[in-house]
Automatic annotation (TrEMBL):
Keyword Transit peptide in annotation: no
MF term (GO), any: hydrolase activity, hydrolyzing O-glycosyl compounds
Matching SUPFAM superfamilies: (Trans)glycosidases (SSF51445)
GO process terms (BP): carbohydrate metabolic process
Domain (X8) ranges: 427-512
InterPro entries attached to this UniProt entry: GH, Glyco_hydro_17, Glyco_hydro_17_plant, X8
Organism: Digitaria exilis
Protein name: X8 domain-containing protein
Protein keywords: Disulfide bond, Glycosidase, Hydrolase, Signal
Taxonomic lineage of the native organism: Eukaryota, Viridiplantae, Streptophyta, Embryophyta, Tracheophyta
Length: 598
């Protein structure tokens, strides 16, 4: 796939041949339901054979252990933060219709606005209301908490599906004078819910700012700030465990990207796109998204203040399931401001859709990579749910201009960028070229022997070209991953595989199902333009002609947009296997066609 880091520039390299029955199994069968292909290994030297055997041993260790510990959890859910610090927002009824139109099923508000709560009645949309910092004293006594819950929750429920109450917001940062009052207030609110018989349906949380961490990288060394009483955090975690509530964290990966003085955080790393990964030097765990690394850092920090795990015994306690791995995480605010990317393509859309895909696939094993040793990872998994901040741009929010530009919708309810709350951006498994051909080779053959249908990448088959290790491994990895329900453990291969949440670009003659430009599913349509582009449009990569393709395939147009430019561009047209030179002055739609397809 085009975005795979470190892909070989050549379009003609292979170390393994496969032969076997041309089977096509039912989608996502149990592992090993496919007949095992016969594998013929091409060893170019005795050392190559030894390298292969060692790679297989490493692969089996890396694949088998995660499978033993992999437990599927309930998929997560993604909602939005509905802020109202603006003077030009639509009425609540119109907003509710907007939520429905976009399949948004969960909302968090920052107060107890009766108009909003009533507008959500009988909609099936779950709502989280708030007891703001300035009202925290209300819950300082049991009787005060009962009165507040009666007035702001009980009288609306169950017509409005209130499923949570946030007590305070970023208290450790915004109202540190209330640190000692926070957890007692949460306990009083929870006791009030018990008194009113609502504790089974409504949980109590408090959002914590990610800046509460003194150290966040590497994740295994994360700790909370010294000015935050560790006893308060321990009491908070204890309360959340007792009530089976999630730890709420407000985390903004794009801020870490912008504030990185060494520019070591890549755009791809924080927007869930393919990247080489970043390794925690203390655990050897490889992270393929900044968001995942930040969540893991929080788990380690929680483990260090939890009575169940001290700093000296953290790793052992986590491995035994007694540290922070039993505390669920919810991203109570996750957002991105396009204001911070002037004059550029805003990456916030990639982040939002990647976040949705990540969360929808949430499980007890992380959606990033497992290494061979589970003890070196917290193993807590991704956030169970997330709230995208924010629903609208809010023109009255305090702070710099970027604070007023986090919305996924403008106040006129037009989208700032497209967000798919149902599917996100999907997920695929791609080969990580950075591990080298020996490890890819071992992983490729393992996947083909354990359920992946590799018949299409045999010599002469429709997906054999281009003949590269990365192309073949990606095809096999993704087939195995999709057949196993997109389980994160099914794209590990001891680091040889990487889950991506953006539609991968075509990088070989036969794209994976669901990838951009897969339809029409013909070899002519898939080959060979990207290989040509990958090789710097070298004439040796194809036969060059000069014509603009405009045909249609099976009556369906498949467009490739070329941005306006005054320069000459070239691409390889599949029907003729020839380079076409064009000088676009506007957007161009190019249809792929297979001769004789009709």
């Amino acid at each position: 796939m085009a975005a795979v880091a470190g892909a070989e520039p050549s379009c003609s390299y292979i170390n393994v041949r496969l032969r076997g029955p041309n089977t096509r199994a039912h989608p996502r069968p149990p592992i090993n339901s496919n007949p095992t292909p016969h594998l013929v290994f091409v060893h170019h030297s005795p050392q190559g054979k030894q390298d292969f055997i060692m790679a297989v041993h490493a692969l089996l260790l890396g694949v088998t252990l995660p499978m033993l510990f992999f437990l599927v959890a309930e998929a997560g859910e993604v909602g939005v933060c509905w802020g109202t610090q603006a003077d030009n927002l639509p009425d609540p009824g119109s907003v509710v219709q907007l939520l429905k139109n976009n399949s948004i099923t969960m909302v968090r508000i920052y107060d107890n606005n009766s108009a909003v709560i009533n507008a959500l009645a009988n909609t099936g949309i779950k709502l989280m209301v708030a007891l703001p910092n300035e009202q925290l004293d209300t819950a300082s006594s049991p009787s005060g908490a009962v009165q507040w819950v009666q007035d702001n929750v009980a009288k609306y429920y169950p017509s409005t599906l209130i499923n949570g109450i946030t007590v305070g917001n970023e208290v450790f940062d915004q109202a540190s004078n209330l640190n000692q009052q926070l957890v007692p207030a949460m306990r009083n609110v929870y006791a009030a819910l018990q008194t009113l018989g609502l504790d089974g349906a409504i949980k109590v949380f408090t959002p914590v700012a990610y800046s509460a961490l003194k150290v966040s990288w590497p994740p295994s060394q994360a700790v909370f700030r010294d000015d935050i009483p560790q006893s308060v955090v321990a009491d908070l975690v204890s309360f959340l465990r007792q009530t089976s509530a999630a730890f709420f964290i407000n985390v903004y990966p794009f801020r870490a990207y912008l504030d990185d003085p060494n520019h070591s955080i890549s755009l791809e790393y924080w927007t869930f796109q393919p990247n080489a990964g970043v390794t925690d030097p203390y655990t050897s765990r490889v992270y393929y998204s900044l968001y995942d690394a930040q969540l893991d850092a929080l788990r380690y920090a929680i483990g260090r203040v939890s009575p169940a795990a001290t700093a000296s015994s953290l790793r052992a306690s986590l491995a035994q399931g007694t540290g922070a791995d039993d505390v669920q995480l919810t991203c109570s605010e996750c957002g991105c401001s396009c204001w911070n990317f002037p004059g550029k393509h805003c990456p916030c859309q990639n982040f939002a859709n990647g976040l949705i895909s990540y969360t929808l696939a949430a499980s007890s094993s992380s959606n990033s990579k497992y290494t061979a040793s589970l003890v070196s990872s917290t193993g807590g998994g991704g956030a169970t749910s997330a709230f995208i901040f924010a629903l609208f741009n809010e023109d009255n929010k305090p702070g710099d201009e970027s604070e007023r530009d986090f919305g996924i919708f403008y106040p006129n309810m037009q989208p700032v960028y497209g967000v798919d709350f149902v599917h996100g951006s999907g997920s695929w498994c791609v080969a990580n070229a950075a591990v080298g051909n020996t490890q890819l080779w071992a992983a490729l053959n393992w996947s083909c022997s354990h359920g992946a249908d590799c018949s299409a990448i045999q010599p002469g088959a429709r997906c054999f070209s281009p003949d590269t290790m990365v192309a073949h491994a990606t095809y096999a990895f993704n087939d195995y991953y999709q057949r196993n329900g997109q389980a994160s453990s099914a794209c590990d291969f001891n680091g040889a595989g990487s889950i991506v949440y953006q539609q991968p670009k075509l990088d070989w003659a036969c794209g994976p199902h669901g990838a951009d430009c897969f339809d029409p599913d013909t070899k002519v349509s898939h080959a060979f333009n990207h290989c040509y582009q990958r090789n710097s449009r070298a004439a040796s990569a194809c036969s060059i002609v000069y014509q603009a393709p405009t045909n249609q395939a099976r009556g369906k147009r498949k467009s490739i947009s070329f941005l306006q430019s005054q320069a000459r561009h070239s691409f390889l047209h599949p029907a003729s296997q020839a380079v076409v030179l064009i000088k676009p002055t506007n957007h161009w739609d190019v249809a792929h066609d297979e001769p004789g397809s009709g």
